[in-house]
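Weekly puzzle thread! Below is a chain. First person to post its structure in token form gets bragging rights.
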Amino acid sequence: MEKDPTLWPLATWALGFLMAMGGGLVSWFAGFKSGHTKTFNAFAFAGEIFTSGFVGLSVFFLLTSMGMHMGVCAAGAGIGGHMGTRLLIIAESVIETRINKLKKRL
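Winning reply:
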């Protein structure tokens, strides 16, 4: 598959984004069933879905750039979407640790 996202067909973009949003939907529903979300809040739901879409699509890009098979990229997008903000917090922590190590060297 072409690694340049500007050359991807719409179906490839849709696959990554829908898998990511599906992962976010599963995550939100699991929180709803376990009582973390007491009432249906449209803003919280939309925030969860769009954050999941962003994170999952980022994972999709990352895996594609590494030359992974399209099925693995789609599965990674779903998993990334399910993790949502938790994956963002992990990434932030890793970047912060590396920056602090660089600061100590200088």
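Puzzle host: Confirmed. Bonus trivia for everyone else. The longest helix spans residues 10-33.
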